[in-house]
Input
Amino acid sequence: MPGVELFGAEERKEVNDVMETGILFRYNHDKERAGIWKAKTLEKEIAEYVGTKYCHFVSSGTTAVQTAMAACGIGYGDEVIVPPYTYIATIEGVMFSGAIPVFADVDETICLSPASIRKAITPKTRAIALVHMCGAIGHIEEIIEICKEHNLILLEDAAQALGATHKGKYAGTFGQIGCYSFDFFKIVTAGEGGAIVTNDEQLYKNADSFSDHGHDHIGALRGMENHPHIGLNFRTSELHAAVGLAQFRKIQQILDLQRINQKKLKAVVEKFPQITFRYIPDEAGDSCTFLCFFGPDEATTRKIVKAFAENGIDGIQYWYDNMYHYIRNWGHIKSLASVTKLPLHVLDQPQDYATLQLPDSDKVISRLISMLVKVGWSEAQLEERLQKIESALQSVFEKVEA
Ligand SMILES: *Cc1c(COP(=O)(O)O)cnc(C)c1O
Output
């Protein structure tokens, strides 16, 4: 969670600009707002940075996913191929748009594997919701090919990968539409917030109006604007956008520091040949928010996690046990426990989530450890951490070999 580590005067200044005018609403009030447009400015800067024509900022990464689904016209009965390892919001976004999540497998990129995507395609497949997990990009080139071959929409959930690239191109800009999150735990935060990016004007317009009750945002009289279609309220406020703007301007600084610190962590973990690393096709594009690696098997991986805890090393994620990131513990999704009836409850489904087995993904995620990379560590803190990591790993592998 690097963004929150660098909170300071810049965020206060942007928020104060809004407090001065009192216009917390992102649209209209042209005279009273005295030229202060935080959401619009943030959108412009995000689009410039990632190199898309359009960006639209919304209330969260989750609403960004749902807005992106709607903007692309993905809905009732459409099958969307999703990974079983993600943050659960991806799956929620698909379900609440009326579509059917179809789980494929992840491989050692910790993202969807092209081969398993091919197996999951049916005549009802509309889209792939590709998630760039833990700040880096997987087999993007092969997946783009599959989308072209089968005429599928590529929707990128790049909530965790703002700033990551593959051969110089930014995560979120490979498909028809991409999503980012600015929640409290992401690389930069707005407190809460999300964004969609696209080069397609119609998709942008769809997103812009869907996320604000259908408003077309033409003219100065909000109550008299046209509503080309039905929408919801997924708007951001100017206060959130102000924080997001100050944070977003720190992204390069954060990426640079993460890359330096991740290298140091990796140099220690690399000393243990029993450990292998997440495969990233273009490693130079890793945003380095995490260092992701694999133990030789589940039992040893659990021992490593335990040894890290015993040595007081924080920021360690073992996603296999996590309730929100891996399908193994998604009991509510397996039983389709929803407070309200969903299209999923009445539609024919290609997969029965209750009995679905994903042994290939289990084999990967049960051995996966992610180490959070912070930017605020002092030299001394980092040095101490490196020593602790080394002795924790030593204790595990000496025991294993003995
Ligand atoms: C965080 C996250 C989201 C949701 O973002 P929120 O802003 O928390 O709603 C969606 N997808 C992934 C992969 C995420 O990590």
Summary: The radius of gyration is 22 Å. The chain has two domains: 3-250, 252-401.
